[in-house]
Amino acid sequence: MSATASAVSWRALGPHVRPHRRVLAAGALLGLLGSGAALAQPLAAQSVIEALQERESVLTPIVVLSALVVVGALLTGTYLLLLERTAERIVLRARLGLAARMLRLRVPAIDRQSPGDLITRMTSDTTLLRAAASNGVVQLVNGAVGLLGAIVLMAVVDWVLLLVTLGVLGTIAFGVLVLLPRISRATERGQAAVGEIGSVLERSLAAVRTVKASGAEARETAAIEDAARRSYGAGLELARHQAVLGVATGLAIQVSFLAVLGVGGARVADGAMDVAALVAFLLYLFYLAEPVSGLVQAGIELQAGLGALARLDATEELPVEDDVETPADSVLESAIAAGPAPGVPLISFARVAFAYGDERAPVLHDVSFSVPEGGQTALVGPSGAGKTTLFALLQRFYEPTGGAVLLGGRDISTIPRGTLRRSIGSVEQDAPVLAGTLRDNLLYGAPGASGAELAEVVAETRLEELVAQLPEGLDSEIASRGTSLSGGERQRIAIARALLRRPRILLLDEATSQLDARNEMALRDTIARAARRCTVLVIAHRLSTVVAADQIVVLDAGRVRAAGTHAELVEHDALYRELAMTQLLAGPAG
Ligand SMILES: Nc1ncnc2c1ncn2[C@@H]1O[C@H](COP(=O)(O)OP(=O)(O)OP(=O)(O)O)[C@@H](O)[C@H]1O
Protein backbone atom coordinates (compact mmCIF):
# COMPACT_ATOMS: atom_id res chain seq x y z
CA MET A 1 0.00 0.00 0.00
CA SER A 2 2.88 2.32 0.60
CA ALA A 3 3.64 4.87 -2.05
CA THR A 4 7.02 4.47 -3.66
CA ALA A 5 9.72 7.00 -3.00
CA SER A 6 9.82 7.96 -6.65
CA ALA A 7 6.19 9.04 -6.35
CA VAL A 8 7.13 11.54 -3.63
CA SER A 9 8.55 14.72 -5.04
CA TRP A 10 10.53 17.37 -3.24
CA ARG A 11 7.30 19.33 -3.09
CA ALA A 12 5.99 16.79 -0.57
CA LEU A 13 8.27 18.37 2.02
CA GLY A 14 6.30 21.60 1.61
CA PRO A 15 3.59 20.99 4.23
CA HIS A 16 6.23 20.08 6.81
CA VAL A 17 8.53 23.01 6.00
CA ARG A 18 5.94 25.73 5.34
CA PRO A 19 4.77 26.31 8.94
CA HIS A 20 8.38 26.99 9.91
CA ARG A 21 9.37 28.98 6.85
CA ARG A 22 9.99 32.23 8.73
CA VAL A 23 12.21 30.62 11.34
CA LEU A 24 13.97 28.59 8.67
CA ALA A 25 14.51 31.76 6.62
CA ALA A 26 15.87 33.52 9.73
CA GLY A 27 18.09 30.48 10.36
CA ALA A 28 19.30 30.51 6.77
CA LEU A 29 20.00 34.26 7.06
CA LEU A 30 21.98 33.78 10.29
CA GLY A 31 23.83 30.89 8.69
CA LEU A 32 24.59 33.07 5.67
CA LEU A 33 25.77 35.95 7.82
CA GLY A 34 27.97 33.46 9.67
CA SER A 35 29.25 32.23 6.32
CA GLY A 36 29.69 35.83 5.21
CA ALA A 37 31.83 36.47 8.29
CA ALA A 38 33.84 33.37 7.41
CA LEU A 39 34.05 34.45 3.77
CA ALA A 40 35.36 37.87 4.73
CA GLN A 41 38.12 36.29 6.83
CA PRO A 42 40.44 35.52 3.87
CA LEU A 43 40.02 39.13 2.68
CA ALA A 44 40.96 40.35 6.18
CA ALA A 45 43.86 37.89 6.22
CA GLN A 46 44.92 39.19 2.82
CA SER A 47 44.96 42.77 4.17
CA VAL A 48 47.03 41.63 7.18
CA ILE A 49 49.62 40.13 4.78
CA GLU A 50 49.52 43.23 2.57
CA ALA A 51 49.98 45.47 5.62
CA LEU A 52 52.97 43.37 6.64
CA GLN A 53 54.40 43.62 3.12
CA GLU A 54 53.88 47.39 3.07
CA ARG A 55 55.26 47.59 6.67
CA GLU A 56 52.08 49.42 7.76
CA SER A 57 50.25 49.03 11.09
CA VAL A 58 48.51 45.64 11.30
CA LEU A 59 46.30 46.65 14.26
CA THR A 60 43.16 47.52 12.26
CA PRO A 61 43.27 44.45 9.97
CA ILE A 62 43.86 42.20 13.00
CA VAL A 63 40.96 43.78 14.96
CA VAL A 64 38.69 43.32 11.91
CA LEU A 65 39.82 39.70 11.51
CA SER A 66 39.22 38.96 15.22
CA ALA A 67 35.79 40.62 15.13
CA LEU A 68 34.89 38.52 12.09
CA VAL A 69 35.90 35.32 13.93
CA VAL A 70 33.87 36.16 17.08
CA VAL A 71 30.76 37.43 15.25
CA GLY A 72 30.93 34.45 12.87
CA ALA A 73 31.01 32.03 15.82
CA LEU A 74 28.06 33.73 17.56
CA LEU A 75 25.97 33.76 14.40
CA THR A 76 26.71 30.11 13.70
CA GLY A 77 25.83 29.12 17.29
CA THR A 78 22.47 30.92 17.17
CA TYR A 79 21.78 29.45 13.75
CA LEU A 80 22.43 25.90 15.00
CA LEU A 81 20.18 26.39 18.02
CA LEU A 82 17.37 27.75 15.87
CA LEU A 83 17.73 24.87 13.48
CA GLU A 84 17.63 22.19 16.16
CA ARG A 85 14.55 23.76 17.71
CA THR A 86 12.81 23.87 14.36
CA ALA A 87 13.79 20.27 13.72
CA GLU A 88 12.18 19.17 16.99
CA ARG A 89 9.07 21.18 16.16
CA ILE A 90 8.80 19.52 12.78
CA VAL A 91 8.94 16.08 14.44
CA LEU A 92 6.42 17.15 17.07
CA ARG A 93 4.02 18.51 14.48
CA ALA A 94 4.29 15.38 12.34
CA ARG A 95 3.72 13.17 15.41
CA LEU A 96 0.79 15.22 16.66
CA GLY A 97 -0.71 15.08 13.18
CA LEU A 98 -0.35 11.31 13.05
CA ALA A 99 -1.59 10.90 16.63
CA ALA A 100 -4.71 12.87 15.78
CA ARG A 101 -5.42 10.50 12.89
CA MET A 102 -4.40 7.07 14.14
CA LEU A 103 -7.39 6.21 16.33
CA ARG A 104 -9.74 8.08 14.02
CA LEU A 105 -8.83 6.00 10.98
CA ARG A 106 -11.81 4.24 9.48
CA VAL A 107 -12.12 0.61 10.47
CA PRO A 108 -11.63 -0.76 6.90
CA ALA A 109 -8.39 1.27 6.65
CA ILE A 110 -7.18 -0.08 10.02
CA ASP A 111 -8.08 -3.62 8.92
CA ARG A 112 -5.58 -3.30 6.07
CA GLN A 113 -2.73 -1.96 8.24
CA SER A 114 -0.37 -3.65 10.60
CA PRO A 115 -0.41 -1.89 13.98
CA GLY A 116 3.34 -2.46 14.43
CA ASP A 117 4.07 -0.76 11.12
CA LEU A 118 1.82 2.19 12.02
CA ILE A 119 3.71 2.58 15.30
CA THR A 120 7.03 2.68 13.43
CA ARG A 121 5.75 5.40 11.14
CA MET A 122 4.87 7.52 14.16
CA THR A 123 8.10 6.90 16.07
CA SER A 124 10.90 6.25 13.60
CA ASP A 125 9.93 7.75 10.23
CA THR A 126 9.19 11.12 11.80
CA THR A 127 12.78 11.40 13.03
CA LEU A 128 14.08 11.01 9.47
CA LEU A 129 11.81 13.81 8.43
CA ARG A 130 13.42 15.90 11.17
CA ALA A 131 16.79 16.05 9.44
CA ALA A 132 15.37 16.58 5.96
CA ALA A 133 12.89 19.32 6.74
CA SER A 134 15.20 21.47 8.84
CA ASN A 135 18.88 20.79 8.36
CA GLY A 136 18.45 19.54 4.80
CA VAL A 137 16.52 22.61 3.65
CA VAL A 138 18.79 25.13 5.38
CA GLN A 139 21.98 23.41 4.27
CA LEU A 140 20.65 23.37 0.73
CA VAL A 141 19.98 27.11 0.78
CA ASN A 142 23.16 28.01 2.64
CA GLY A 143 25.29 25.63 0.62
CA ALA A 144 23.96 27.06 -2.65
CA VAL A 145 24.40 30.68 -1.51
CA GLY A 146 27.82 29.94 0.03
CA LEU A 147 28.92 28.25 -3.19
CA LEU A 148 27.68 31.14 -5.33
CA GLY A 149 29.28 33.74 -3.04
CA ALA A 150 32.60 31.93 -3.07
CA ILE A 151 32.47 31.56 -6.86
CA VAL A 152 31.81 35.31 -7.30
CA LEU A 153 34.68 36.23 -4.96
CA MET A 154 36.98 33.69 -6.61
CA ALA A 155 36.10 35.17 -10.01
CA VAL A 156 37.09 38.58 -8.65
CA VAL A 157 40.45 37.20 -7.46
CA ASP A 158 41.34 35.12 -10.52
CA TRP A 159 38.89 33.75 -13.09
CA VAL A 160 41.43 31.32 -14.67
CA LEU A 161 41.85 29.53 -11.33
CA LEU A 162 38.07 29.59 -10.96
CA LEU A 163 37.65 27.70 -14.25
CA VAL A 164 40.19 25.12 -13.04
CA THR A 165 38.26 24.71 -9.77
CA LEU A 166 34.85 24.43 -11.42
CA GLY A 167 36.15 21.83 -13.87
CA VAL A 168 37.20 19.59 -11.00
CA LEU A 169 34.08 20.18 -8.89
CA GLY A 170 31.78 19.54 -11.84
CA THR A 171 32.83 15.91 -11.85
CA ILE A 172 31.36 15.23 -8.39
CA ALA A 173 28.03 16.79 -9.31
CA PHE A 174 27.47 13.92 -11.74
CA GLY A 175 28.08 11.25 -9.11
CA VAL A 176 25.78 13.01 -6.65
CA LEU A 177 22.92 13.15 -9.14
CA VAL A 178 23.24 9.42 -9.87
CA LEU A 179 23.42 8.32 -6.23
CA LEU A 180 20.79 10.52 -4.56
CA PRO A 181 17.62 8.71 -5.74
CA ARG A 182 19.15 5.44 -4.55
CA ILE A 183 19.45 6.92 -1.08
CA SER A 184 15.74 7.60 -0.86
CA ARG A 185 14.87 4.12 -2.14
CA ALA A 186 17.26 2.48 0.35
CA THR A 187 15.79 4.59 3.19
CA GLU A 188 12.26 3.56 2.31
CA ARG A 189 13.29 -0.10 2.15
CA GLY A 190 15.08 0.21 5.51
CA GLN A 191 12.09 1.88 7.16
CA ALA A 192 9.70 -0.70 5.72
CA ALA A 193 11.90 -3.40 7.30
CA VAL A 194 11.85 -1.55 10.64
CA GLY A 195 8.06 -1.39 10.31
CA GLU A 196 8.00 -5.12 9.76
CA ILE A 197 10.02 -5.69 12.93
CA GLY A 198 7.33 -3.71 14.75
CA SER A 199 4.56 -5.71 13.07
CA VAL A 200 5.95 -9.14 13.91
CA LEU A 201 6.77 -8.07 17.46
CA GLU A 202 3.33 -6.60 18.00
CA ARG A 203 1.65 -9.69 16.56
CA SER A 204 3.64 -12.14 18.65
CA LEU A 205 3.55 -10.17 21.90
CA ALA A 206 -0.22 -9.71 21.59
CA ALA A 207 -0.61 -13.49 21.30
CA VAL A 208 2.39 -14.51 23.38
CA ARG A 209 0.62 -17.46 25.01
CA THR A 210 -0.38 -18.87 21.63
CA VAL A 211 3.19 -18.35 20.39
CA LYS A 212 4.62 -20.23 23.36
CA ALA A 213 1.94 -22.93 23.36
CA SER A 214 2.56 -23.54 19.66
CA GLY A 215 6.32 -23.64 20.13
CA ALA A 216 6.56 -20.86 17.53
CA GLU A 217 9.19 -18.73 19.34
CA ALA A 218 11.93 -19.67 16.87
CA ARG A 219 9.74 -18.95 13.82
CA GLU A 220 8.62 -15.57 15.12
CA THR A 221 12.20 -14.73 16.10
CA ALA A 222 13.37 -15.73 12.61
CA ALA A 223 10.79 -13.40 11.07
CA ILE A 224 12.10 -10.53 13.22
CA GLU A 225 15.71 -11.44 12.39
CA ASP A 226 14.88 -11.51 8.71
CA ALA A 227 13.40 -8.01 8.86
CA ALA A 228 16.32 -6.80 11.01
CA ARG A 229 18.77 -8.13 8.39
CA ARG A 230 16.89 -6.39 5.62
CA SER A 231 17.04 -3.16 7.59
CA TYR A 232 20.78 -3.78 8.08
CA GLY A 233 21.19 -4.38 4.33
CA ALA A 234 19.41 -1.14 3.51
CA GLY A 235 21.52 0.66 6.15
CA LEU A 236 24.69 -0.75 4.61
CA GLU A 237 23.63 0.38 1.17
CA LEU A 238 22.99 3.85 2.56
CA ALA A 239 26.38 3.83 4.28
CA ARG A 240 28.06 2.83 0.98
CA HIS A 241 26.38 5.66 -0.92
CA GLN A 242 27.27 8.15 1.80
CA ALA A 243 30.87 6.93 1.93
CA VAL A 244 31.24 7.25 -1.85
CA LEU A 245 29.74 10.73 -1.77
CA GLY A 246 31.92 11.78 1.18
CA VAL A 247 35.11 10.50 -0.43
CA ALA A 248 34.20 11.99 -3.79
CA THR A 249 33.57 15.39 -2.19
CA GLY A 250 36.85 15.29 -0.26
CA LEU A 251 38.78 14.14 -3.34
CA ALA A 252 37.28 16.84 -5.50
CA ILE A 253 38.35 19.52 -3.03
CA GLN A 254 41.87 18.03 -2.70
CA VAL A 255 42.34 17.72 -6.45
CA SER A 256 41.08 21.29 -6.83
CA PHE A 257 43.72 22.40 -4.32
CA LEU A 258 46.50 20.64 -6.23
CA ALA A 259 45.30 21.92 -9.59
CA VAL A 260 44.96 25.49 -8.26
CA LEU A 261 48.40 25.27 -6.60
CA GLY A 262 49.95 24.03 -9.87
CA VAL A 263 48.22 26.48 -12.21
CA GLY A 264 48.34 29.31 -9.63
CA GLY A 265 52.07 28.72 -8.94
CA ALA A 266 52.79 28.92 -12.66
CA ARG A 267 50.72 32.13 -12.94
CA VAL A 268 52.59 33.69 -9.98
CA ALA A 269 55.91 32.70 -11.58
CA ASP A 270 54.73 34.29 -14.86
CA GLY A 271 53.73 37.44 -12.95
CA ALA A 272 50.09 36.98 -14.04
CA MET A 273 49.02 37.17 -10.38
CA ASP A 274 50.64 37.98 -7.05
CA VAL A 275 51.17 35.73 -4.01
CA ALA A 276 48.50 37.50 -1.89
CA ALA A 277 45.88 36.79 -4.56
CA LEU A 278 46.93 33.12 -4.74
CA VAL A 279 46.73 32.84 -0.92
CA ALA A 280 43.28 34.49 -0.94
CA PHE A 281 42.13 32.15 -3.70
CA LEU A 282 43.40 29.09 -1.81
CA LEU A 283 41.60 30.27 1.33
CA TYR A 284 38.40 30.58 -0.69
CA LEU A 285 38.94 27.10 -1.98
CA PHE A 286 39.47 25.95 1.58
CA TYR A 287 36.22 27.67 2.49
CA LEU A 288 34.45 26.12 -0.50
CA ALA A 289 34.79 22.65 1.05
CA GLU A 290 32.07 23.56 3.53
CA PRO A 291 29.24 24.61 1.20
CA VAL A 292 30.10 21.78 -1.20
CA SER A 293 29.97 19.08 1.47
CA GLY A 294 26.95 20.89 2.98
CA LEU A 295 25.18 20.60 -0.36
CA VAL A 296 26.02 16.91 -0.65
CA GLN A 297 24.88 16.33 2.94
CA ALA A 298 21.67 18.26 2.24
CA GLY A 299 21.07 16.02 -0.77
CA ILE A 300 21.56 12.90 1.37
CA GLU A 301 19.30 14.12 4.18
CA LEU A 302 16.59 15.34 1.85
CA GLN A 303 16.56 12.07 -0.04
CA ALA A 304 16.46 10.02 3.17
CA GLY A 305 13.66 12.27 4.42
CA LEU A 306 11.75 11.75 1.19
CA GLY A 307 12.01 7.99 1.68
CA ALA A 308 10.43 8.32 5.13
CA LEU A 309 7.94 10.87 3.87
CA ALA A 310 6.63 8.36 1.35
CA ARG A 311 5.57 6.21 4.30
CA LEU A 312 4.18 9.13 6.33
CA ASP A 313 2.21 10.44 3.36
CA ALA A 314 0.73 7.01 2.75
CA THR A 315 -0.62 7.15 6.33
CA GLU A 316 -1.88 10.70 5.80
CA GLU A 317 -3.92 9.51 2.86
CA LEU A 318 -5.82 6.86 4.82
CA PRO A 319 -9.43 7.89 5.35
CA VAL A 320 -10.50 9.01 8.83
CA GLU A 321 -13.83 9.25 10.60
CA ASP A 322 -14.26 13.00 10.77
CA ASP A 323 -17.63 12.96 12.48
CA VAL A 324 -16.92 11.29 15.83
CA GLU A 325 -16.23 14.49 17.73
CA THR A 326 -18.43 16.91 15.86
CA PRO A 327 -20.35 19.20 18.22
CA ALA A 328 -23.61 17.59 19.23
CA ASP A 329 -26.46 18.44 16.86
CA SER A 330 -29.06 19.07 19.58
CA VAL A 331 -32.06 18.74 17.24
CA LEU A 332 -30.83 15.39 15.93
CA GLU A 333 -29.78 14.14 19.37
CA SER A 334 -33.10 15.00 20.95
CA ALA A 335 -34.95 13.44 17.99
CA ILE A 336 -32.99 10.22 18.59
CA ALA A 337 -33.48 10.46 22.36
CA ALA A 338 -37.23 10.95 21.90
CA GLY A 339 -37.38 7.56 20.19
CA PRO A 340 -39.13 6.58 16.98
CA ALA A 341 -42.54 7.83 15.96
CA PRO A 342 -45.40 5.46 16.81
CA GLY A 343 -45.35 2.43 14.54
CA VAL A 344 -41.75 3.02 13.45
CA PRO A 345 -39.25 0.39 14.67
CA LEU A 346 -36.18 1.52 16.60
CA ILE A 347 -33.78 -0.28 14.27
CA SER A 348 -34.44 -1.52 10.75
CA PHE A 349 -32.16 -3.34 8.38
CA ALA A 350 -33.65 -2.61 4.97
CA ARG A 351 -32.38 -4.90 2.19
CA VAL A 352 -28.83 -4.58 3.51
CA ALA A 353 -26.02 -6.05 1.43
CA PHE A 354 -22.37 -5.93 2.40
CA ALA A 355 -18.92 -7.16 1.34
CA TYR A 356 -15.61 -6.57 3.16
CA GLY A 357 -13.90 -5.00 0.12
CA ASP A 358 -14.56 -4.89 -3.62
CA GLU A 359 -12.72 -8.07 -4.38
CA ARG A 360 -14.34 -10.07 -1.57
CA ALA A 361 -17.51 -12.11 -1.79
CA PRO A 362 -20.58 -10.48 -0.17
CA VAL A 363 -21.24 -11.65 3.40
CA LEU A 364 -24.73 -10.15 3.70
CA HIS A 365 -27.46 -10.35 1.05
CA ASP A 366 -30.75 -8.52 1.16
CA VAL A 367 -30.98 -8.58 4.96
CA SER A 368 -34.26 -7.08 6.22
CA PHE A 369 -35.64 -7.17 9.74
CA SER A 370 -36.73 -4.72 12.40
CA VAL A 371 -36.08 -4.37 16.09
CA PRO A 372 -38.89 -2.74 18.08
CA GLU A 373 -38.05 -0.37 20.90
CA GLY A 374 -37.50 -2.11 24.25
CA GLY A 375 -37.09 -5.77 25.03
CA GLN A 376 -34.62 -8.27 23.67
CA THR A 377 -33.96 -9.35 20.13
CA ALA A 378 -31.62 -12.31 19.63
CA LEU A 379 -29.61 -13.05 16.50
CA VAL A 380 -28.73 -16.67 15.96
CA GLY A 381 -27.09 -18.51 13.13
CA PRO A 382 -24.18 -20.74 12.28
CA SER A 383 -20.66 -19.39 12.58
CA GLY A 384 -19.86 -16.97 9.75
CA ALA A 385 -23.54 -16.20 9.09
CA GLY A 386 -22.85 -12.45 9.40
CA LYS A 387 -24.15 -11.67 12.91
CA THR A 388 -21.10 -9.67 14.07
CA THR A 389 -21.05 -7.89 10.71
CA LEU A 390 -24.58 -6.60 11.37
CA PHE A 391 -23.36 -5.11 14.67
CA ALA A 392 -20.42 -3.48 12.88
CA LEU A 393 -22.76 -1.93 10.29
CA LEU A 394 -25.07 -0.63 13.01
CA GLN A 395 -22.12 1.19 14.59
CA ARG A 396 -20.96 2.48 11.18
CA PHE A 397 -17.61 0.73 11.40
CA TYR A 398 -18.41 -0.16 7.78
CA GLU A 399 -20.99 1.18 5.34
CA PRO A 400 -23.43 -1.22 3.63
CA THR A 401 -22.84 -1.83 -0.07
CA GLY A 402 -26.60 -1.99 -0.62
CA GLY A 403 -29.76 -1.09 1.27
CA ALA A 404 -29.74 0.91 4.49
CA VAL A 405 -29.70 0.62 8.25
CA LEU A 406 -32.29 2.87 9.89
CA LEU A 407 -32.45 4.22 13.43
CA GLY A 408 -35.93 5.44 14.31
CA GLY A 409 -36.68 5.55 10.57
CA ARG A 410 -33.58 7.66 9.82
CA ASP A 411 -30.81 6.27 7.59
CA ILE A 412 -27.80 6.01 9.92
CA SER A 413 -25.46 7.13 7.12
CA THR A 414 -26.98 10.60 7.71
CA ILE A 415 -26.22 10.48 11.46
CA PRO A 416 -22.69 11.53 12.49
CA ARG A 417 -20.81 8.52 13.84
CA GLY A 418 -20.24 10.23 17.21
CA THR A 419 -23.98 10.85 17.71
CA LEU A 420 -24.88 7.36 16.54
CA ARG A 421 -22.34 5.66 18.80
CA ARG A 422 -23.40 7.73 21.80
CA SER A 423 -26.78 6.02 21.56
CA ILE A 424 -25.24 2.53 21.45
CA GLY A 425 -23.47 0.48 24.12
CA SER A 426 -21.49 -2.41 22.74
CA VAL A 427 -20.18 -5.55 24.41
CA GLU A 428 -17.80 -7.63 22.33
CA GLN A 429 -17.62 -11.37 22.59
CA ASP A 430 -14.16 -11.48 24.14
CA ALA A 431 -15.16 -8.55 26.42
CA PRO A 432 -11.75 -6.85 26.48
CA VAL A 433 -10.63 -5.53 29.84
CA LEU A 434 -8.08 -2.73 29.75
CA ALA A 435 -5.10 -2.55 32.08
CA GLY A 436 -6.00 -0.26 34.99
CA THR A 437 -8.37 -0.39 37.93
CA LEU A 438 -11.86 -1.86 37.90
CA ARG A 439 -13.20 1.69 38.25
CA ASP A 440 -11.21 2.87 35.18
CA ASN A 441 -12.66 -0.05 33.26
CA LEU A 442 -16.23 0.69 34.23
CA LEU A 443 -15.97 4.42 33.58
CA TYR A 444 -14.10 3.98 30.29
CA GLY A 445 -17.11 4.83 28.12
CA ALA A 446 -18.57 7.44 30.49
CA PRO A 447 -15.74 9.16 32.41
CA GLY A 448 -18.20 11.71 33.82
CA ALA A 449 -20.62 9.21 35.40
CA SER A 450 -21.41 9.92 39.05
CA GLY A 451 -20.65 7.64 42.00
CA ALA A 452 -24.38 6.92 42.38
CA GLU A 453 -24.70 5.91 38.72
CA LEU A 454 -21.66 3.68 39.07
CA ALA A 455 -23.07 2.00 42.20
CA GLU A 456 -26.41 1.48 40.48
CA VAL A 457 -24.85 -0.20 37.44
CA VAL A 458 -22.54 -2.31 39.62
CA ALA A 459 -25.61 -3.59 41.45
CA GLU A 460 -27.51 -4.12 38.24
CA THR A 461 -24.76 -6.20 36.68
CA ARG A 462 -24.29 -8.17 39.91
CA LEU A 463 -20.68 -7.08 40.27
CA GLU A 464 -21.02 -6.22 43.98
CA GLU A 465 -19.69 -9.57 45.03
CA LEU A 466 -16.60 -9.19 42.85
CA VAL A 467 -16.00 -5.65 44.15
CA ALA A 468 -16.28 -6.96 47.74
CA GLN A 469 -13.79 -9.74 47.03
CA LEU A 470 -11.12 -7.55 45.47
CA PRO A 471 -8.54 -6.20 47.95
CA GLU A 472 -9.12 -2.55 47.09
CA GLY A 473 -12.64 -2.84 45.75
CA LEU A 474 -13.32 -0.70 42.70
CA ASP A 475 -9.76 0.66 42.88
CA SER A 476 -8.10 -2.74 42.55
CA GLU A 477 -5.79 -3.12 39.59
CA ILE A 478 -6.94 -5.65 37.06
CA ALA A 479 -4.24 -7.74 35.41
CA SER A 480 -3.53 -6.84 31.81
CA ARG A 481 -6.10 -8.47 29.48
CA GLY A 482 -8.23 -9.34 32.50
CA THR A 483 -6.58 -12.70 33.05
CA SER A 484 -7.41 -12.59 36.75
CA LEU A 485 -11.16 -12.50 36.04
CA SER A 486 -13.57 -15.23 35.00
CA GLY A 487 -15.23 -15.08 31.57
CA GLY A 488 -18.59 -14.26 33.15
CA GLU A 489 -17.08 -11.46 35.24
CA ARG A 490 -15.38 -9.95 32.20
CA GLN A 491 -18.69 -10.01 30.31
CA ARG A 492 -20.54 -8.34 33.18
CA ILE A 493 -17.83 -5.68 33.50
CA ALA A 494 -18.17 -5.03 29.78
CA ILE A 495 -21.96 -4.81 30.10
CA ALA A 496 -21.64 -2.42 33.05
CA ARG A 497 -19.21 -0.28 31.04
CA ALA A 498 -21.69 -0.16 28.15
CA LEU A 499 -24.68 0.58 30.40
CA LEU A 500 -22.92 3.49 32.12
CA ARG A 501 -23.06 5.29 28.79
CA ARG A 502 -26.86 5.20 29.20
CA PRO A 503 -27.30 3.85 25.70
CA ARG A 504 -30.58 3.55 23.88
CA ILE A 505 -29.42 0.28 22.36
CA LEU A 506 -27.23 -2.39 23.93
CA LEU A 507 -25.39 -4.61 21.46
CA LEU A 508 -24.19 -7.76 23.14
CA ASP A 509 -22.12 -10.49 21.55
CA GLU A 510 -22.46 -13.31 24.05
CA ALA A 511 -19.44 -15.33 25.09
CA THR A 512 -19.35 -18.74 23.48
CA SER A 513 -17.59 -20.30 26.42
CA GLN A 514 -19.42 -22.39 28.97
CA LEU A 515 -20.02 -20.55 32.23
CA ASP A 516 -20.53 -22.03 35.66
CA ALA A 517 -24.05 -22.00 37.10
CA ARG A 518 -23.55 -18.82 39.11
CA ASN A 519 -22.01 -16.82 36.29
CA GLU A 520 -24.60 -18.12 33.84
CA MET A 521 -27.44 -17.03 36.09
CA ALA A 522 -25.81 -13.69 36.86
CA LEU A 523 -25.34 -13.01 33.16
CA ARG A 524 -28.91 -13.99 32.27
CA ASP A 525 -30.21 -11.79 35.02
CA THR A 526 -27.98 -8.90 33.93
CA ILE A 527 -29.24 -9.06 30.35
CA ALA A 528 -32.85 -9.22 31.51
CA ARG A 529 -32.33 -6.14 33.68
CA ALA A 530 -30.52 -4.32 30.88
CA ALA A 531 -33.49 -5.01 28.62
CA ARG A 532 -35.63 -2.95 31.00
CA ARG A 533 -33.35 0.04 30.54
CA CYS A 534 -32.74 -0.13 26.81
CA THR A 535 -33.29 -2.16 23.67
CA VAL A 536 -31.04 -5.21 23.72
CA LEU A 537 -29.82 -6.76 20.51
CA VAL A 538 -27.87 -9.87 21.37
CA ILE A 539 -25.88 -12.36 19.31
CA ALA A 540 -27.05 -15.35 21.25
CA HIS A 541 -24.98 -18.40 21.99
CA ARG A 542 -27.09 -19.58 24.95
CA LEU A 543 -30.39 -21.31 25.05
CA SER A 544 -31.35 -19.29 28.11
CA THR A 545 -30.92 -16.05 26.11
CA VAL A 546 -33.03 -17.10 23.13
CA VAL A 547 -35.76 -18.47 25.35
CA ALA A 548 -35.94 -15.12 27.13
CA ALA A 549 -35.83 -13.06 23.90
CA ASP A 550 -38.94 -11.33 22.61
CA GLN A 551 -37.85 -11.93 19.04
CA ILE A 552 -35.26 -14.19 17.45
CA VAL A 553 -33.83 -13.58 13.97
CA VAL A 554 -32.18 -16.59 12.33
CA LEU A 555 -29.36 -15.74 9.94
CA ASP A 556 -27.79 -18.21 7.56
CA ALA A 557 -25.01 -17.47 5.08
CA GLY A 558 -25.72 -13.74 5.14
CA ARG A 559 -29.50 -14.02 4.70
CA VAL A 560 -32.40 -13.77 7.14
CA ARG A 561 -33.91 -17.21 7.19
CA ALA A 562 -36.66 -16.86 9.76
CA ALA A 563 -37.84 -14.71 12.66
CA GLY A 564 -40.13 -15.37 15.59
CA THR A 565 -40.16 -16.54 19.17
CA HIS A 566 -38.32 -19.61 20.42
CA ALA A 567 -41.51 -21.71 20.46
CA GLU A 568 -42.49 -20.61 16.93
CA LEU A 569 -39.06 -21.24 15.48
CA VAL A 570 -38.65 -24.62 17.13
CA GLU A 571 -41.87 -25.60 15.47
CA HIS A 572 -41.34 -24.10 12.02
CA ASP A 573 -37.63 -23.77 11.29
CA ALA A 574 -35.45 -26.82 10.82
CA LEU A 575 -32.13 -24.93 11.05
CA TYR A 576 -33.20 -23.22 14.26
CA ARG A 577 -34.28 -26.53 15.73
CA GLU A 578 -30.91 -27.99 14.88
CA LEU A 579 -29.05 -24.95 16.28
CA ALA A 580 -31.09 -25.06 19.47
CA MET A 581 -30.27 -28.72 19.89
CA THR A 582 -26.60 -28.73 18.90
CA GLN A 583 -25.02 -25.28 19.06
CA LEU A 584 -26.76 -23.14 21.65
CA LEU A 585 -25.13 -23.64 25.02
CA ALA A 586 -27.70 -25.14 27.31
CA GLY A 587 -25.92 -23.86 30.43
CA PRO A 588 -25.08 -25.86 33.53
CA ALA A 589 -28.62 -25.65 34.84
CA GLY A 590 -30.39 -26.16 31.52
N1 LIG B 1 -12.82 -7.70 8.95
C1 LIG B 1 -13.18 -8.65 8.08
N2 LIG B 1 -12.62 -8.69 6.86
C2 LIG B 1 -12.98 -9.62 5.97
N3 LIG B 1 -13.89 -10.58 6.18
C3 LIG B 1 -14.49 -10.60 7.38
C4 LIG B 1 -14.16 -9.64 8.39
N4 LIG B 1 -14.92 -9.91 9.47
C5 LIG B 1 -15.68 -11.00 9.16
N5 LIG B 1 -15.43 -11.40 7.90
C6 LIG B 1 -16.09 -12.52 7.19
O1 LIG B 1 -17.47 -12.21 7.09
C7 LIG B 1 -18.27 -13.35 7.29
C8 LIG B 1 -19.27 -13.10 8.40
O2 LIG B 1 -18.55 -12.92 9.61
P1 LIG B 1 -19.24 -12.54 10.99
O3 LIG B 1 -18.15 -12.35 11.97
O4 LIG B 1 -20.19 -11.44 10.78
O5 LIG B 1 -20.04 -13.89 11.29
P2 LIG B 1 -20.73 -14.33 12.61
O6 LIG B 1 -22.07 -14.81 12.20
O7 LIG B 1 -20.67 -13.26 13.63
O8 LIG B 1 -19.82 -15.56 13.04
P3 LIG B 1 -19.38 -16.05 14.52
O9 LIG B 1 -20.62 -16.53 15.21
O10 LIG B 1 -18.45 -17.16 14.21
O11 LIG B 1 -18.73 -14.88 15.17
C9 LIG B 1 -17.33 -14.50 7.60
O12 LIG B 1 -17.17 -15.25 6.41
C10 LIG B 1 -16.02 -13.81 7.96
O13 LIG B 1 -14.93 -14.58 7.54
TrEMBL record:
Ranges for domain ABC transmembrane type-1 come to 25-304
CDD domains per the UniProt record, alphabetical: ABC_6TM_LmrA_like
> What's an example of a GO molecular-function annotation for this chain?
ABC-type oligopeptide transporter activity
Read off the InterPro entries from this record: AAA+_ATPase, ABC1_TM_dom, ABC1_TM_sf, ABC_transporter-like_ATP-bd, ABC_transporter-like_CS, P-loop_NTPase, Type_1_exporter
Major location category of this protein: membrane
Single GO cellular component annotation?
Answer: plasma membrane
Annotated compartments: Cell inner membrane
Superkingdom of this entry's organism? Bacteria
**Membrane-spanning residues where?**
64-83, 128-153, 159-180, 243-265
Entry-linked Gene3D superfamilies: ABC transporter type 1, transmembrane domain, P-loop containing nucleotide triphosphate hydrolases
Give the ABC transporter domain ranges: 347-582
Q: Which SUPFAM superfamilies match?
A: ABC transporter transmembrane region, P-loop containing nucleoside triphosphate hydrolases
Q: Which family does it belong to?
A: Belongs to the ABC transporter superfamily. Siderophore-Fe(3+) uptake transporter (SIUT) (TC 3.A.1.21) family.
**Name listed for the protein in its UniProt record:** ABC transporter related protein
Where does this protein come from, organism-wise?
Conexibacter woesei (strain DSM 14684 / CCUG 47730 / CIP 108061 / JCM 11494 / NBRC 100937 / ID131577)
